[in-house]
From TrEMBL:
Region span, Disordered: 1-22
Keyword terms: Iron, Metal-binding, Oxidoreductase
Compositional bias ranges of the Polar residues kind: 1-20
Positions of the Fe2OG dioxygenase domain: 171-273
Classification via InterPro entries: Oxoglu/Fe-dep_dioxygenase_dom, Pro_4_hyd_alph_FE2OG_OXY
Molecular function terms from GO: metal ion binding; oxidoreductase activity
PANTHER family for the chain: FE2OG DIOXYGENASE DOMAIN-CONTAINING PROTEIN (PTHR33099), MYND-TYPE DOMAIN-CONTAINING PROTEIN (PTHR33099:SF7)
Protein family per UniProt: Belongs to the iron/ascorbate-dependent oxidoreductase family.
Protein name: Fe2OG dioxygenase domain-containing protein
Gene3D superfamilies: q2cbj1_9rhob like domain
């Protein structure tokens, strides 16, 4: 295999290239494409509001099961005019008769809702027509934890991974009260700005105020889920709250509100470390029942092309701050979402060693080993890095970044045809992976800034190279599978 530190041949063997041509591998690529689209990226529901708790069903031990209904919700806020009585800055949902005056006051007390554009807060009604209150100006008795909403989100969007050391759970932080009013309240297609690298999603809760239109559409990889909490004519469903949660990188849109007022509370959702396995009831993602698991298992365990081992590579279908250098950096695998966590779990369930790697698909750089522009390339570490020319020896930095180390590297700023001496054999960091040795299960998608090249000189210049985040599984060679002897270490 290609990742010893002795500098032996790294060319894929004939048997390895057979893998990519096999019908099983093709089937797997098709399944991965389907799975990345089909996997849940949003969830939601409605919860009826009742005036007093209904008889809650009991389980066999006489314990009350979780409430599936919500008691009336109080909302209070700070008025613009401090002389207003507190009885006038309060609403109870479902709205009681004769509270139109208070609703009107709430509408007047909200302020125009901006949105982020190029690092600035912009107000533009053709893009977002809404008003808002910051959480310092209002409070409500609504609690998404009590109603099981946060558990449902954790189970659906962020189940704990069997192969992660710790369980993960969801923290919801109240973010805004928003009001979209007819006839033209809306928020055109956008993605929310994560407040920290630990933020994985958003939760929207719609309070029961009469309105038409205003459906929330959430999209991922060409698929759309619609949450419509409007009231249609003659609707006698009774008051309820509607909720929807979705991953931060999903595009979403609030369609035009044609009548009435669409009043929502929004929450930022963060991934936090859990307290461990709670009574064995913690929601686990079990990938072994899925067809994709079986196909990968067959390919890994039955295909004879792995005699010398090799790699399977999967490009994350969601966006992560994978090159972030902050303390709260990308905590892979803790932050994995949707199909990405599924792929990670499948690889780990098969006992494969897994690493998270940056893949730069367009690094224009001469590689003396192959005599080619070395693109694309798999990096050793995810963190964003800066190379300063001429202070840093960029060739050396490049070698370190790829995990290929030349003991006696000749400097190549430009390749000239007259340069014929051969480069010394490189040694390799443990975990060095050549792009060509990976059997890629899907195409490359979102990219994050990975390497900044800063040149000082007569003409100062800066260039940024971008990387995708790949999950790479190492298939050990047949010999080492039998002896359990792993030759490669992932960082
Ligand atoms: O109110 C909604 O349904 C979504 C609002 C939204 O997208 C946002 O506040 O960023
Ligand atoms: Fe949003």
């Amino acid at each position: 295999m290609s990742n010893t530190s002795s500098g032996e041949s790294t060319m894929p063997t004939a048997s390895q290239s057979k893998i990519s041509e096999s019908p099983l591998f093709r089937e797997l690529r098709e399944s991965v494409a389907k799975e990345t689209v089909a996997f849940t990226f949003a969830c939601g529901g409605t919860i009826p509001i009742v005036s007093s708790p209904l008889d809650t069903a009991e389980d066999v031990d006489g314990d009350k099961l979780r409430a599936t209904e919500c008691l009336p919700i109080d909302l209070r806020w700070d008025p613009n005019d401090e002389s207003v009585l507190s009885s006038e800055t309060k609403l109870t949902f479902p709205l009681e008769p004769n509270t139109e005056k208070n609703l009107d006051r709430l509408i007047k007390d909200t302020v125009p809702a901006t949105f982020g554009l190029g690092g600035e807060h912009v107000y533009d009604e053709s893009y977002r027509k809404a008003t808002k209150l910051d959480p310092t100006r209002f409070s409500s008795t609504f609690n998404p934890y009590e109603l099981g909403i946060i558990d449902a989100i954790a189970q659906t969007l962020l189940p704990s991974l069997r192969h992660s050391k710790q369980t993960r759970s969801v923290k919801a932080e109240l973010y805004k009260l928003n009001l979209y009013s007819g006839p033209s309240g809306k928020f055109k297609t956008h993605v929310d700005t994560p407040r920290s690298p630990a933020q994985f999603g958003s939760l929207v809760v719609c309070l029961p105020v009469e309105h038409r239109g205003g459906a929330l559409e959430v999209r991922h990889k060409g698929k759309t889920v619609t949450f419509d909490w409007s009231n249609s004519e003659g609707d006698d469903k009774g008051p309820s709250i509607g909720w929807a949660a979705f991953y931060s990188d999903c595009e979403h849109e609030v369609l035009e509100v044609t009548h009435g007022h669409r009043l929502t509370l929004t929450y930022n959702l963060f991934c936090v470390r859990g307290n461990g396995q709670l009574g064995g009831n913690y929601p686990w993602l079990d990938p072994t029942h899925l067809p994709l698991y079986k196909t990968i298992r067959s390919l890994v365990q039955e295909h004879d092309g792995w005699r010398d081992g090799g790699y399977l590579g999967y490009n994350c279908s969601h966006v992560y701050p994978h090159t972030s250098k902050t303390n709260l950096n990308f905590l892979a695998p803790d932050n994995l979402k949707g199909a990405d966590m599924l792929m990670y779990e499948i690889f780990r369930s098969l006992g494969l060693k897994v690493s998270f790697r940056p893949v730069v698909t367009d690094l224009r750089y001469y590689d003396p080993e192959t005599g080619e522009d070395a693109a694309p390339v798999v990096g050793l570490k995810l963190e964003w890095t800066t190379w300063r020319f001429p202070r840093d020896n960029v060739e050396e930095e490049y070698d370190k970044w790829t995990g290929k180390v030349y003991s006696n590297r000749r400097r190549y700023y430009w390749r000239s045809d007259s340069e014929s001496e051969s480069e010394p054999e490189p040694t390799r960091e443990p975990g060095y992976i050549r792009f060509e040795d990976v059997h890629w299960l899907n195409n490359f998608g979102h990219k994050e800034p990975q390497i900044s090249w800063v040149a000082h000189g007569n003409e100062p210049a800066g260039v940024t190279t971008y990387s995708c985040c790949a999950i790479i599984a190492e298939i050990p060679s047949r010999g080492s599978q039998e002896t359990g002897n792993k030759t490669v270490q992932s960082p």
